[in-house]
Specification:
Layout: H1 15-33, H2 45-59, E1 66-67, E2 70-71, H3 78-90, H4 94-119, H5 122-134, H6 136-141, H7 148-167, H8 173-189, H9 192-210, H10 219-230, H11 232-240, H12 244-258, H13 271-278, H14 286-297, H15 302-323, H16 336-349, H17 357-379, H18 390-401, H19 412-434, H20 450-457, E3 465-468, H21 475-480, E4 485-487, H22 499-502, E5 505-506, H23 509-512, E6 522-527, E7 540-546, E8 549-554
Parallel strand pairs: 3-4, 3-6, 4-5
Antiparallel strand pairs: 1-2, 6-8, 7-8
Helix pairs in contact: 1-4, 1-5, 2-3, 3-4, 4-5, 4-7, 4-16, 5-16, 5-19, 7-8, 7-9, 8-9, 8-10, 9-15, 15-16, 17-19, 18-19
């Protein structure tokens, strides 16, 4: 097969290139690690993944995930394995909980730099990396404990490996790396790990065949390897618990896509505004990137063939997600690397030599509006933006403005604009992130349990008895580092409970009053709206709140 395009990079980068790459690396590290452990784990997602990982580490059972001590095989185990390993190395804290996701974000950024450089040139790789790590949704999810960023890393690995094979067909290890990465992605979060790479590769292959070029890809053997890796855990668990086979096949696969069973249904057009907002501030560049890309696709040049790989990366998966009966904002994260590559390629070929006045005005207007909205919001709250160290801001600005290498020197204004808006994006996102901890009470059902746990731990004397009743806050157990009593609606009844598990289940508010004898403190986390009805104020008192939740304590004299 004729290579798509041979890299045009020098074998030994100049001294200047080393400094530019070092600056880029520091920029990416700041973008992915800044304030990583500063705020508490948000409920229910971060708390759930952290607690499952803690229970896995404590029990030593690395095959069957548990939540509240009950079997919870809803997700494959890779994210739990990585998080538990992080706890082993760094201890049980918020920074360690999010470290695997931040590391996956850095890995994804590195792959995009390498792929952009190989396909389009050095400046394209730099530009694509900066766009990716400063895009709003990627920036946020790099510091969220969910499987989505790790899944994105495996998907990007698969497509980047295939792209490298397209450049070097003789090195088939890259092709097998693609199939292995898909299998590991499936072990992280299911079918999208296969849908996205297969869509990208198949679209590229079909496009080449229409041009008369035959490309042989060992689909049968490759997908067999992917399946062997991807379903290995499901087979092991199904052998241990045969009753879970129907749960895996129906509830987690068929029902999730074709029905509204999981309560995540949204409009078919749901992901259009999600992508447009999530790509900010670079969304405004799409007005130039899309028409240019359309022209490139009509050419017979090598770049035209490469772009079909990007089209397959974005368009068919986007349609699949849009038609799915289960939709969450996080599901589109694997598409951002492709969008960043498209912008990077455009910048290399056209953007660095274009008149960016309209784009500059649009991005500046966006940031101006954001700052005005932020100031207005703070005017009506008691929160203030904390002082960010000036050296940090200075470093960010210098690094961003030093990204002049991402464009040709013919148009230095473009370099300043690109680097300036990259720095501006990062600074604004970090400032907003620094306020996240102060907004805990405004987050409703997503509020962290950290402050409530601190209040429980402050109790002197006997260890308090703690329960959760009809509140989805698994992070409470993670912060307490122990299992507690939970209401029956909070656990999965996929397997019959053991006597020890049954003893921790609560069926009514009245049962909570009798969890401990008089004199031993009893605390519970409940919905704030239920205080006074399910939890009468003559028997329970509110000692702390967080978002939509209240921490109540049994009053003395009530058995």
């Amino acid at each position: 097969m004729t290579p798509v395009r041979q890299p045009t990079l020098e074998s030994e980068p100049s001294r200047g290139r080393y400094w530019e790459r070092l600056a880029l690396a520091v920029f990416v590290l700041i973008a992915c690690f800044a304030l990583l452990g500063g705020r508490g784990l948000n409920e229910p997602d971060e708390g759930r993944y952290a607690e499952i990982s803690r229970e896995m580490l404590e029990s030593g059972d690395w095959m069957m995930p548990t939540l509240h001590g009950f079997a919870h095989p809803q997700k494959p185990p890779v994210v739990y394995w990585l998080t538990a390993a992080s706890f082993t190395v760094f201890g049980q804290n918020g920074w360690a909980a999010r470290f695997p996701c931040a590391l996956a974000a850095i890995g994804t950024a590195w792959l995009i730099f390498k792929t952009g450089r190989s396909l389009f040139g050095e400046r394209a790789g730099v530009a694509a990396t900066i766009v990716l790590v400063t895009s709003l949704q990627f920036f946020v999810q790099a510091r969220l404990l969910t499987p989505d960023m790790i899944l994105t890393f495996w998907i990007t690995t698969a497509i980047a490996s295939f792209a490298q094979w397209a450049l070097e067909p003789a090195h088939r290890r890259w092709l097998w790396g693609c199939f292995i990465a898909m299998g590991l992605g499936f072990l992280t979060k299911g079918p999208m790990a296969i849908v996205v790479p297969v869509s990208a590769v198949a679209t590229w292959q079909i496009a080449l065949r229409r041009r008369g070029e035959r490309v042989k890809i060992p689909w049968f053997r490759g997908m067999a390897l992917t399946a062997l890796i991807g379903i290995s855990w499901f087979l092991i668990v199904a052998v241990r618990e045969p009753t879970l086979v129907r749960f895996f096949a129906h509830d987690e696969l068929i029902a999730r896509f074709f029905t509204r069973q999981h309560g995540r249904y949204h409009s078919t057009f749901f992901y259009i505004p999600v992508l447009l907002v999530g790509l900010l501030p670079w969304t405004f560049l799409l007005a130039s990137v899309v028409p240019w890309l359309n022209r490139e696709l009509k050419t017979d040049q090598p770049f035209g063939r490469v772009w079909w790989l990007m089209i397959g990366w974005v368009v068919p998966p986007f349609l699949v997600l849009s038609l799915s009966g289960s939709k969450l904002i996080t599901y589109v994260l694997p598409l951002y690397p492709a969008l960043a590559l498209a912008i990077g390629g455009w910048w290399e070929r056209v953007g660095s030599r274009s008149d960016l006045t309209w784009h500059a005005a649009s991005i500046a207007g966006f940031f101006g509006s954001l700052i005005v909205a932020l100031v207005a919001a703070l005017r009506f709250t008691t929160h203030t933006i904390p002082a960010v160290p000036l050296p940090l801001l200075g470093i960010l600005i210098l690094i961003a403005l030093g990204m002049g290498a991402l464009t040709v020197p013919v148009k230095p204004k473009a370099s300043v604009l690109g680097g300036g808006f990259a720095a501006g994006s990062l600074i604004v996102w970090i400032l907003l992130l620094s306020q996240a901890g102060s907004w805990n009470d405004l987050m409703g059902v997503g509020a962290s349990m950290r402050s409530l746990t601190q209040r429980i731990r402050s109790e002197t004397g006997d260890e308090p008895m703690v329960f959760v009743y009809r509140a989805n806050v698994p992070g409470l157990e993670w912060y307490l580092s122990r299992l507690i009593h939970v209401s029956e609606d909070r656990v999965d009844h996929l397997l019959p409970p053991t006597p020890a598990q049954q003893a921790r289940l609560l069926s009514s508010p009245g049962q909570c009053s009798t969890l401990a004898p008089p004199g031993r403190p009893v605390f519970g986390v409940v919905k704030l709206t239920k205080v006074g009805s399910d939890w009468p104020t003559n028997a329970w008192r509110v000692v702390a709140t967080a978002g939509s939740f209240a921490l109540i304590q049994r009053m003395e004299g009530n058995p």
